[in-house]
Amino acid sequence: MGFHSYIRAVGTGPKSNRELTKNETIDAIESILNQSVHSEQIAAFLLGWRVRLETVEELKTTLEVCNKYIKRVKIENSIELGYPFDGKADNPYLLPLIPKYLKKFDLNLVVSGDEIQPAKKGLTIKQLYENIEFDDNIFYFDRADYFKELNDLTKIRNILGLRTAFNTVEKLLNPGTSDYAVNAAFHKPYVAKYNQIFGNNYKNLIIVKGNEGTPEIFSKCKYWQTIDGKISEYIIDPEYFGINYKKSTDIIPPEESLNMTKNPSDELEKLAKLNAAMFLVAAQKADDIKIAFEMIE
């Protein structure tokens, strides 16, 4: 079946749009990743698909296709952190501050980086890695090395300039074959969707309403965890732990953001401890974030 039929399936309006079959999704995604069709066709499909809204089954199949291309290296006792590839703009990264609190628990963190993707133009994990020395229990995977085909789509995605289905699936591609993961969701309906797409790949998956779509907690928020097949909701309030960090409401220049991470305030360090506690819960080393925080303290 020609690629034009896939474009028609997602881009001809409510009366004619339809869900792609599993085989169609496989063929479409392989054609995109291999760039065996024109870049204009790729952009048209991704845009139409986003507007029509990708189904859970289509996204699950997309992840299955991606798995065929990924080069993995097993990182023992690790948690994969689902950072977005469009960066962070309003607050500094906590990531480099967290690992030291996890060493006594023999926990490793796995993160992925690439050139910036649409749609937010923030400081990326790749830029963070290039400017700040990571602790030895953070394992950084560059997508140009472990998934070159998706890395090669960067130019097309940036010309399109909009979020696509790849923004959803790329955050948890699991290059370190981690047993645990923490992902972020802006809206509650995505919690069930992310569990359907990614849940079976991990012993435990936590979804958090993190800062700027990252798995980092800066203020009062919710997180969700599936226990015995049921999604349970919890609240984390930094003030309960004596943390009074005030989030920025303005874009922070990259150099300033990096400097804030390199020279953290007391409140940022406290936030790093709280985030480390959440990771202990994700790794099933504690059942409750309050207990986990006490373990770190």
From TrEMBL:
<protein>
    <submittedName>
        <fullName>Glycosyl transferase</fullName>
    </submittedName>
</protein>
<dbReference type="GO" id="GO:0000162">
    <property type="term" value="P:L-tryptophan biosynthetic process"/>
</dbReference>
<dbReference type="Pfam" id="PF02885">
    <property type="entry name" value="Glycos_trans_3N"/>
</dbReference>
<keyword id="KW-0808">Transferase</keyword>
<dbReference type="InterPro" id="IPR035902">
    <property type="entry name" value="Nuc_phospho_transferase"/>
</dbReference>
<feature type="domain" description="Glycosyl transferase family 3 N-terminal">
    <location>
        <begin position="6"/>
        <end position="60"/>
    </location>
</feature>
<feature type="domain" description="Glycosyl transferase family 3">
    <location>
        <begin position="145"/>
        <end position="294"/>
    </location>
</feature>
<dbReference type="InterPro" id="IPR000312">
    <property type="entry name" value="Glycosyl_Trfase_fam3"/>
</dbReference>
<dbReference type="InterPro" id="IPR017459">
    <property type="entry name" value="Glycosyl_Trfase_fam3_N_dom"/>
</dbReference>
<keyword id="KW-0328">Glycosyltransferase</keyword>
<dbReference type="InterPro" id="IPR036320">
    <property type="entry name" value="Glycosyl_Trfase_fam3_N_dom_sf"/>
</dbReference>
<dbReference type="InterPro" id="IPR005940">
    <property type="entry name" value="Anthranilate_Pribosyl_Tfrase"/>
</dbReference>
<dbReference type="GO" id="GO:0004048">
    <property type="term" value="F:anthranilate phosphoribosyltransferase activity"/>
</dbReference>
<dbReference type="GO" id="GO:0005829">
    <property type="term" value="C:cytosol"/>
</dbReference>
<dbReference type="Pfam" id="PF00591">
    <property type="entry name" value="Glycos_transf_3"/>
</dbReference>
